[in-house]
Amino acid sequence: MNKEPQILDLDKILQEKAPDIYSKMPRFVLNYLKRKIHLDELNEILTIYADKQGVDFMQAVVGYFNLTLDVNGLENIPKNGRYIFASNHPLGGLDGICLSAVIGEHFDKKIKYVVNDFLYFIRNLQPIFLPVNKYGKQSREAANTTNEAYNSDDQIVTFPAGLCSRREKGMIRDLTWQKNFIIKAIETKRDIVPVYFNGENSNFFYRFANIRKKLGVKFNVELVFLPDEMFKNKNERFSITIGEPIPYAFFDNTKSAVEWAGYVKEKAYNLANTNK
After folding, report:
1. What end-to-end distance do the CA atoms of the chain give, in Å?
2. At CA 163, angle to CA 181 and CA 275, rounded to 5?
3. Which of 57, 121, 61 is nearest to 94 (CA)?
4. What digits encode the pLDDT tens for the residues 79-116?
């Protein structure tokens, strides 16, 4: 039975999440943002697939964008394990959709996906989303939900960098991988599976990010353009390489959690050469 579709209201979202910015924003800027984030197209997706939830919705979106996914290595991951899939984050949108669709299918839809809490507005995905507030204090409810997920049998999909990749010195790479996924792996006895997603955004996105950084603007303004980047990648082909699980016991006291996070990051990027 079809459910009532969710309609994204940018005015309402900004009023709730960034009231100070919204109150000072000229109407023409708001209208520009609505066009740039493809608000009408996003609402079309939410309307067409209103009856789909979680992994089913992710798979439907992969179809909507007509993406071809070449997946290597997932067949070697036992289905009876409990894992944290830690991936690089080149796209900032479609990569999460694709990984959730692929890993979710392999594990009978039993996954949780760690996301920025702005994305938690998408009702169709709330069953598999674990919201993380990057710009404020995590609520007790959200923290409890996260702990329950890590202690469950669901697989965890995460992008430890938190933000999508940037271009530095001609190379597109993640920023520093945060240590939390290492800590959670040890606490909840989950093996970590490094993942490499081969993809990139447009030159405009990286140039804008670098200009913003040179101007000393701390807020990642370029995030506004991620929906536009997502639609630019329609009909694309992406490769996803899944590495071998690293036992949680491997992460001992010989390195700090930050150092282990960097270690797993390098493991993920080394997978780029696996299928060449």
Report:
1. 45
2. 75
3. 61
4. 999 999 999 999 999 999 999 999 999 999 999 998 87
Structure tokens at 178: 């945060």
**DSSP-derived secondary structure for 176-234:** PPPTHHHHHHHHHT-EEEEEEEE----HHHHHHHHHHHHTT--S-GGGGGHHHHHHHTT
Domain boundaries, the chain: 1-51, 69-273
The secondary structure element, H or E, covering residue 154 is none
pLDDT along the chain (276 residues), means of 10: 78 86 90 93 95 96 98 93 97 94 97 78 88 64 87 96 92 96 98 97 94 88 91 97 98 98 98 78
Residue 152 CA to its chain's centroid (Å): 20
Exposure string for 184-218, b = 16+ CB within 10 A, e = fewer: bbbebebbbbbbbbbbebeeebbeebeeeeeeeee
Q: Which helix (H) or strand (E) covers residue 111, if one does?
A: strand 111-116
Strands 111-116 and 129-132: what pairing? Answer: parallel
Cβ atoms within 10 Å of 235's Cβ, excluding its own: 8
For 131, 158, 188, 272, the CA distances from 107, given in Å and listed in that order, are 21, 16, 19, 24
Q: For residue range 243-267, list pLDDT tens digits in order.
A: 999 999 999 999 999 999 999 999 9
Sheet of 111-116, strand order: 68-72, 237-242, 191-198, 83-87, 155-158, 111-116, 129-132
Instruction: Report the alpha-carbon angle 72-75-80, nearest 5.
Output: 140
pLDDT at 1: 45
Lookup: tokens for 222: 């370029």
